[in-house]
Design a protein that fits this description.
325 residues, alpha/beta, TIM Barrel, eight-stranded parallel β-barrel, binds zinc ion, binds ligand PBG
C-alpha cells in the first residue's frame, strides 16, 4: 500500500499539526439567565451547574469568565412578575435585560461582547413568543413592533448584538429598520435563523419560565424534518440584513450548519441548547460517559460542521478544566 492515512495519525504532535479545526475561547458564547433584584443566585434543577442570577452577581461571574478568555455573553431575562398578553415588561421602561447590559458595559466596556436574546416568551402570560390573535394564534405582524421595541431598548443600553429568537416572518428587517431609525445602525443582528421546534429546549423552559401554557411552537419554529425550509428561512434573514446566522439546536442539526456554511458568507453560529447540555450532564453523573471527552467531541463537531461561533452552557467549565486543549 502506497497510500496510508494512518501516517498522519501516528503521534500526538502530528495529529495536532493536521487538525482541521480547533476551538478558541473567543469562539464560545456563554448564556446567562438574569433575575431582578440583588444578591441572588438560584440553581436550575434541570441544568446542573447553570444558575439564574441578579445583575450584581452576573457582573462578578462575567469577570471571572473574562479572565478565562470567555469574552462573549448571551443574556436572557427571567422576570418574576408582571407578565401580560403582550409581554410589555420586555420593552417598557428600562427592562431587566437592558439593566444587565448597562452594568456589563460599565464594567467591561468593549472587552466583552454583550449579546441579548430578543423574544417575548419569558414575558407573556401565555408563554408564546409573540402576541396572540383573538383566535389564539401567534400574530406575526402585530408582534414585530413589540420585538423591535425590545431590540431598541437593548441597543440603547449598549448591547453589541441583538439576537431575535421568536421566528416571526420579517422580524430581521423590522428590527434592522427600527434600530437604524433609533440611531443604532452599528448594533449587529444575530438571527436565530434556522430555529427548529425541538424537545431539546425542555430544560431551558424551566430555567426561563417560558413554556407555552397552551399548544406548542410548531406554528412558527421550523419542522425538525425540513432542512430545505430552514435554509430558505435563514437566507431570507440574510437578505433582510442579518449580520450573523444561527442554527439551533446544534447536534441533531449539524447538516443544517453545514448547509448554511455553504450557502452564506455570513458568520454562522450554532446553539448547543439546554437539552443537549442536560443529557451530557446526566450521562456523566451516572458514570456512563467521560464528560471531558464528550464535551470536547461535541463542540469540535460543531466547528467541523462549519460553525464559527458556538453558544454553549459548557463553556466556562470546559475552559476551567482545560477540556478543549
Ligand atoms: C426563546 C428561546 C428558547 C431558547 C432560546 N430562546 C426556547 C424556546 O424557543 O422555547 C432555547 C435555549 C435552550 O434550550 O438552551 N424563544
Ligand atoms: Zn420565545
Amino acid at each position: 500500500m502506497r497510500i496510508r492515512p494512518r501516517r498522519l495519525r501516528r503521534t500526538p504532535a502530528l495529529r495536532e499539526a493536521c487538525a482541521e479545526v480547533r476551538l478558541a475561547p473567543e469562539q464560545l458564547v456563554q448564556p446567562h439567565f438574569v433575575l431582578p433584584g440583588q444578591r441572588t443566585t438560584q440553581p436550575i434543577q434541570a441544568m446542573p451547574g447553570v444558575e439564574r442570577q441578579t445583575v450584581d452577581r452576573l457582573v462578578e461571574q462575567v469577570k471571572r469568565d473574562r479572565d478565562l478568555g470567555l469574552t462573549s455573553v448571551l443574556l436572557f431575562g427571567v422576570p418574576d412578575a408582571g407578565k401580560d398578553p403582550r409581554g410589555r415588561s420586555a420593552f417598557e421602561g428600562t427592562p431587566l435585560v437592558a439593566q444587565a447590559v448597562t452594568a456589563l458595559r460599565e464594567a467591561f466596556g468593549d472587552e466583552v461582547v454583550v449579546m441579548t436574546d430578543v423574544c417575548l416568551c419569558a414575558y407573556t402570560d401565555h408563554g408564546h413568543c409573540g402576541a396572540l390573535t383573538p383566535a389564539g394564534e401567534v400574530d406575526n405582524d402585530a408582534t414585530l413592533p413589540l420585538l423591535a421595541e425590545m431590540a431598541v431598548a437593548h441597543a440603547r443600553a449598549g448591547a453589541h448584538v441583538v439576537a431575535p429568537s421568536d421566528m416571526m416572518d420579517g422580524r430581521v428587517g423590522a428590527l434592522r429598520d427600527a434600530l437604524d431609525a433609533a440611531g443604532f445602525s452599528g448594533t449587529a443582528l444575530l438571527s436565530y435563523a434556522a430555529k427548529f421546534a425541538s424537545a431539546y429546549y425542555g430544560p431551558f423552559r424551566e430555567a426561563a419560565h417560558s413554556a407555552p401554557g397552551q399548544g406548542d411552537r410548531r406554528g412558527y419554529q421550523a419542522d425538525a424534518r425540513n432542512a430545505r425550509d430552514a435554509v430558505r428561512d435563514a437566507l431570507l434573514d440574510e437578505a433582510e440584513g442579518a449580520d450573523m446566522l444561527m442554527v439551533k439546536p446544534a447536534l441533531a442539526y449539524l447538516d443544517v450548519v453545514a448547509a448554511l456554511r455553504r450557502e452564506s458568507r455570513l458568520p454562522v453560529a450554532c446553539y448547543n441548547v439546554s437539552g443537549e447540555y442536560s443529557m451530557v450532564k446526566a450521562a456523566a453523573a451516572a458514570g456512563l460517559v467521560d464528560e471531558a471527552a464528550i464535551v470536547r467531541e461535541n463542540l469540535l463537531a460543531m466547528r467541523r460542521a462549519g460553525a464559527d461561533l458556538v453558544i454553549t452552557y459548557h463553556g466556562r467549565e470546559a475552559l476551567q478544566k482545560g477540556w478543549l486543549r
